[in-house]
Predict the structure.
Amino acid sequence: MSTGPMEDVLAIRELVERYCDAVMLKDPALWATTWAEDGASWVMYGNLMDGRDVIVSRWTEMMSAVKSISFFPMMVSVDVNGDTATSKNYFKEDIELHDGRTYSSTGYYNDVLIKREGRWFFETRTHTSLHRSAQISIVTNVEN
């Protein structure tokens, strides 16, 4: 269930879709456009990364191991309060690494979003894994 102005709820859903598009294209420039320029944080497998430049750099490093990826969200809630919002969305991903290993995972993101100059951005994304088909990971050296 979502609360707040529907135009903001729709814009946040479109932000999540742009994020997924960037993941599937493995496009760091497009992916960077989804993050707030200042104050962004990403929590991935319990590791905190602060700052958009750090986040994009680490994501680019992780994605360099990926040959192909399918990444699909399912938004379950968006709660807008002025120029801030929270959201939760589940995801399903299937990954093939360059070395031929594959895995799939499901999980969810809890997000804090901020609206700047009429556009929504992720301020904080907290990743929680619910299931992984194998204990391989593209997440390496993610400490700040």
In short: Confidence is low (pLDDT under 50) at residues 140-144. The CA atoms of residues 73 and 91 lie 4 Å apart.
